[in-house]
Amino acid sequence: MRKAKVLFKNEEAGILTQHDDGSFSFLYHDDWVANNRKQSISLTLPKTEKEFHSKYLLPFFYNMLPEGSNKQVVCKLNRIDREDHFGLLMTTAKNDSIGAVRILKLED
Domain named HipA N-terminal subdomain: which ranges (predicted)? Predict the structure, then answer.
């Protein structure tokens, strides 16, 4: 299992998890949900206490990944398997992302 912190405007909003079976989940932190001034990170991931599950990387996060030749270069330079979407996301979205969301590896 691998986990990453999901930051929205540099504040931790929740946790993205890749489970051992390859599926994914995203869960907002309780304090994020309880605070009316905090918004959801995406229209497809509305602010709720329920956990979002998917067999594949959730579309919002998948769309943050580089494509084409950019993906090839990032994977080669960082020795990441092209099919390791979670690893690619943690590598590219920690600093270089469009918008307010960043992804940081959660240390155990």
Answer: 5-103
- Contact residues for 27 (Cβ-Cβ < 8 A; gap 6+): 14, 15, 17, 51, 52
Q: For residue 28, which of 10, 20, 40 has the smallest C-alpha distance?
A: 40
Report d(CA 107, CA 78) in Å as an integer. Answer: 19
Interval 22-38 mean pLDDT: 96
What's the predicted TM-score (pTM) here?
0.90
> Quick check: 65 and 56 in contact, CB under 8 A?
no
CA atoms in the 13 A half-sphere facing the CB of 89: 27
Q: pLDDT above 70 covers what percent of the chain?
A: 98
The mean pLDDT of the chain is 92
Question: Rounded to whole angstroms, how far apart are CA atoms 43 and 5?
Answer: 19
